[in-house]
């Protein structure tokens, strides 16, 4: 009996401990803290949406070939690219594709390689929620402050603007206006586009309009849907035209809209372009549905500039002063310092 009486307090303490644990579990559950992790059950229907059947692959390739033939900006290349795609499909070039994401990546790479046009590309409609030519930008330097990364006044009252993309958004025009207002009293202006990833031709036009007279012909646009070229002219702005010397810095990675900016100023004799030959993507790009799950980014118009009567497609913008991109800013500063010393 004595032994039993000695163990009773111990049992009581254990009962109290168990009750306390149960009480804590109830409290935690009531405030939404999970007591144990639950294993997520994969949604097989979602996974099935990404599988590419042979029939879907064939339909997508056939309809893609039709879109290219009917709409790609250069008719001769359109016919060649469409025929090459049909031939590649017939030869089994794409038979190994098993997912829609794989289709987008590999057929997109094939289009750019065969067509020699970096603007060609494929996208999954579900990832964008719509058919659009505007890319989803992931790099912070091309999203923050609408890609206007840096403004400064350097020694000698030399203005400096670093722009990493011509973002297609109404707010970008406001930021551009404020940036140029800040720089308007500098003795010269350096515009750094070495990391610019292209973007909106309308923002290009707006920025150019600050540096050339209103209504200046910037370029013309030719497309397969119009008989006459469309003229793109400088806007009429309330702000006074900026007259200071301009230097534009560029690199081999600079593409599309950023190339428009360099080339248009160069054509107008308005800026000195310094750096490397740019990538050479001159065509205006749109987006067209191919199937209910796929769309294509496709060049729909080509620009013609007034001085050259041509553009920079596949050639790039050739700088006035060729130096490695890393030395372009130093070179621009040197040129301006020499100009000011005269």
Features:
single chain, 342 residues, alpha/beta, 2-enoyl-CoA Hydratase, Chain A, domain 1, 2 domains, six-stranded mixed β-sheet, five-stranded antiparallel β-sheet, 10 helices, 11 strands, disordered N terminus
- β-strand percent reads 15-25%
CATH-derived architecture of the largest domain: Alpha-Beta Complex
What's the rounded overall pLDDT mean? 88
Which structural class should the secondary elements be placed in? alpha/beta
Total DSSP helices:
10
> How many structural domains does the protein architecture include?
2
CATH superfamily of the largest domain: 2-enoyl-CoA Hydratase, Chain A, domain 1
Would you report the number of β strands? 11
User: Biggest sheet, strands in spatial order?
Assistant: 2-3-4-7-8-11
CATH hierarchy, class of the largest domain: Alpha Beta
Task: Report what the structure shows.
With 342 residues, the protein is of the alpha/beta class. The protein has two domains: 49-116, no CATH class; 140-282 and 301-341, Alpha-Beta Complex (2-enoyl-CoA Hydratase, Chain A, domain 1), CATH 3.90.226.10. Helix content is 40%, strand content 18%. The chain is built from ten helices and eleven strands. Strands 2-3-4-7-8-11 form a six-stranded mixed sheet, with helices on both faces. Strands 1, 5, 6, 9 and 10 form a five-stranded antiparallel sheet that branches. The radius of gyration is 30 Å and the shape is elongated. The chain starts with a helix and ends with a helix. The model is unreliable at 1-12 and 24-44 (pLDDT under 50).
């Amino acid at each position: 009996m004595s032994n039993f009486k000695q163990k009773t307090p111990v049992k009581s303490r254990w009962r109290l401990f168990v009750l306390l644990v149960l009480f804590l579990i109830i409290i935690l559950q009531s405030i939404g803290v999970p007591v144990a992790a639950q294993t997520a059950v994969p949604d097989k229907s979602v996974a099935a949406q990404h599988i590419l059947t042979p029939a879907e692959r064939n339909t997508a390739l056939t309809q893609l070939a039709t879109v290219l033939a009917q709409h790609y900006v250069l008719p001769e290349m359109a016919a060649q690219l469409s025929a090459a795609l049909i031939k590649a499909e017939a030869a089994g070039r794409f038979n190994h594709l098993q997912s829609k994401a794989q289709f987008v990546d590999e057929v997109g790479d094939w289009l750019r390689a065969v067509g020699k046009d970096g603007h060609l590309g494929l996208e999954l409609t579900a990832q964008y929620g719509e058919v659009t030519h505007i890319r989803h930008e992931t790099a912070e330097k091309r999203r923050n402050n609408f890609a206007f990364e840096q403004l400064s006044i350097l020694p000698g009252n030399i203005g400096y603007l670093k722009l990493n993309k011509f973002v297609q958004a109404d707010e970008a025009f406001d930021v551009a206006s404020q940036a140029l207002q800040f720089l308007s009293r500098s003795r010269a202006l350096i515009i750094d586009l070495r990391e610019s990833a292209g973007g909106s031709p309308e923002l290009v036009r707006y920025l150019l309009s600050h540096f050339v007279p209103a209504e200046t012909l910037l370029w013309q646009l030719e497309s397969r849907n119009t008989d006459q070229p469309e003229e793109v002219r400088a806007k009429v702005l309330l702000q006074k035209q900026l007259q200071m010397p301009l230097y534009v810095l560029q690199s081999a990675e600079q593409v599309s809209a950023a190339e428009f900016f360099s080339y248009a100023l160069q054509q107008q004799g308005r800026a000195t372009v310094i750096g490397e030959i740019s990538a050479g993507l001159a065509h205006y790009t749109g987006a067209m549905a191919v199937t209910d799950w796929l769309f294509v980014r496709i060049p729909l118009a080509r620009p013609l500039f007034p001085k050259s009567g041509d553009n920079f497609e596949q050639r790039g913008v050739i700088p006035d002063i060729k130096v490695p991109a890393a030395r372009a800013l130093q070179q621009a500063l040197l040129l301006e310092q020499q100009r000011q010393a005269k």
